[in-house]
Amino acid sequence: MYLFLLQNADVIAAPLFPTAQREQVAAFTVPFLDVEASILVRKSVLGSNWINSSRSLDELLSRRNMTFGILKHGVFTHSFNETAPFSSTPAFQNLAFLPYNTEGVELVRMSNFGFVMPRPVGDFISSFPPCDLVTVGAVPVGMGYSLAVARDSDILYGLNHALSVLKNSGKLDELYRKWWFDRSACFRRRRQKMT
Fold first, then answer.
1. pLDDT band at 139 (very low <50, low <70, confident <90, very high)
2. Containing domain of residue 170, as a range?
3. How many alpha carbons fall within 13 Å on the CB side of residue 3?
4. Segment 22-26 mean pLDDT
5. What's the whole-model pTM score?
6. 101 and 157 in one domain?
7. Same structural domain for residues 12 and 49?
8. CA separation (Å) from 88 to 2, 59, 81, 82, 141?
9. Which of 14, 57, 64, 128 has the highest count of CB atoms within 10 angstroms of its CB?
């Protein structure tokens, strides 16, 4: 992460998790998006009668023909390892640790592979053609994306207040739906099929 950019910027807006290491050089706002763990899979793996629920997550995790993987390095991976139901699931005994998200997405498209990732990232990836991917599950991991500001910034209080107002009013959820789903090519394609 290039937090040194804060010398030339007031705010860094990115999918950033605050960590002790990062907090040594930057201050972070309250989370603007709570992040949940989900599993990216091919739609064909789930079948046509799939419903995204905890039951379908349990069903996916119980499949013997599935292999699962996660990004090798990163804050999310550490949090994932401590999150039930993942930490105690036999399906993850032989979890593949991959160096890049792109490798995980390729494996999902080529085989019976489920790639564990932050749900916002999986939702974003699955919103683009060929519209063959979907996220399953929404397991809280106790983390959220935040904005980064310089440690001595006087805008932190104002940003926290604004983010809290937007979050409590539902506006941030509305914006998430708008930019991740409503405007996605896959959502538009699915909506056209229904009319």
1. confident
2. 3-32+145-194
3. 17
4. 87
5. 0.83
6. no
7. no
8. 35, 15, 9, 9, 14
9. 57
